[in-house]
Amino acid sequence: MSKSKLNPADLATPLSEEEFDELDEFLVSDVTSEDTLTIEGLDGYLTAMAIGPTTVPPSYWLPGVWGPSENDAPAFETTDQAQHILGLILRNMNGIVISLEDDPDEFEPVFGFSRVDDSEREYIDGEAWAFGFMQGLSVVRADWQALFDSEKGREWLSPLHLMGSEELTPEEQQLIDTPEQREALTKQIPASVAAIYRFWLPHRQAVHERKLAAAKLRTEPKVGRNDPCPCGSGKKFKKCCGAADTLH
């Protein structure tokens, strides 16, 4: 495995096929635990992070990639290897974000395939992807409450829930009994992702604008007591907006 230091300038570069395969191989290697997400599960997990209402820092969601326990964290050979793998994961995440921003309707989840017994028929299988997505959603589930409260939101989440949740009712289980049913649900997932992405888009934009406004306030020079008031009254700041009993 090639190893390199994590360079922030490279994080916007999409993964090459070779790097994608390298990450895939690492996730199922002996270095990781049995509970570590597969490449399909990771794609679903990162997609949940990308389309949700909150910007979640990697330090918060990264442990969930490896498994539910602190003991699931991989035993990296070196710090460089850890930084290299982290870089691949972050670049994969940014690639998902860029794809969704470009056209959510053209977003292509990384699904697997399955066969039943000796059948030559191959079915599209989104179980691992949906499991990863639901795991990602659970990291900040409270932030998603508005979607759960929406009738359309629950409809969009339905195929993801059926394919990716560990606990289903007997009635729900009957909806995924056959490979044909699971394939049909899997094919509904891309449209659900696009709809959920658009549902949270106004919220994400509002949060982004508030952060920009806060950053602007922090960088603007402080007005002195004897400086002209920025409201344009022509008075000194201390005699205008700087006075405690003055309102504009």
From TrEMBL:
Pfam families: SEC-C (PF02810), UPF0149 (PF03695). It comes from the Bacteria. InterPro entries: SEC_C_motif, YgfB-like, YgfB-like_sf. PANTHER family: ADENYLATE CYCLASE-ASSOCIATED CAP C-TERMINAL DOMAIN-CONTAINING PROTEIN, UPF0225 PROTEIN SCO1677. This is YecA family protein.
